[in-house]
Amino acid sequence: MDKKNRDLNYSIYPSDKNIHPKSFTPDYRSSIFRSPKKTPVSIENIISDLSGHIFEKNDLGSLDNDLTKNYCKNSEPIGERIIIFGKVLDENSKPIPNCLIEIWQANSSGRYRHNGDNYNAPLDPSFGGWGRCLTDDNGNYFFKTIKPGAYPWPNGGNNWRPAHIHFSVFGLSFLQRLITQMYFEGDPLISICPIAQSINNKNALESLISKLDLSKSVHMDYRAYKFDIILRGEKSIPFENRI
Fold this sequence. Notes:
nine-stranded mixed sheet
């Protein structure tokens, strides 16, 4: 190591373990069966685990980030049209470019296009509920979609999930993947949802709630919501699959 690199003052920001939801949360009933019964074992990654295809703009379709058109180009989906935008950042607010983001969600009635969804709500023939994009050089991402509806779920009571969108954030390989959910400002179901309330840190839960931004909205068309994704450190947003 040369003198220049030796003299650099590196800062380490440890993650706050209280930010991320615990795997065992009895109010979230399925966690009782899915949470590990023994202490997880750390397995060292090998080169093949951390290498793989790096996505580029040419790998994605022109409508991949437009959920209002990417499933059916001949008709418009039903529901409130929204824009979701923000940045992917590290703990020092440095933007992360060329980061693959995938999202999936229910339609405006609160139903997923999935064989396992038996909620008695209509499927929208013009809405698939899935999209993806790459962050630009400044870490920005952008989606057009339909605001998802709330839906009931079999948690042992009269439980309803607040409107939310699932986010999957990839690094340099498919093993470098973090998963989270984005909620919407002002939704009264957030405060009574067992999944959302599994996050005990108030500021951490707040970081998962997107904020309405009328300055980015399109007049007579789309409302816009901002949601920044911080990957590491004390200000990291909660991730479902982070140990």
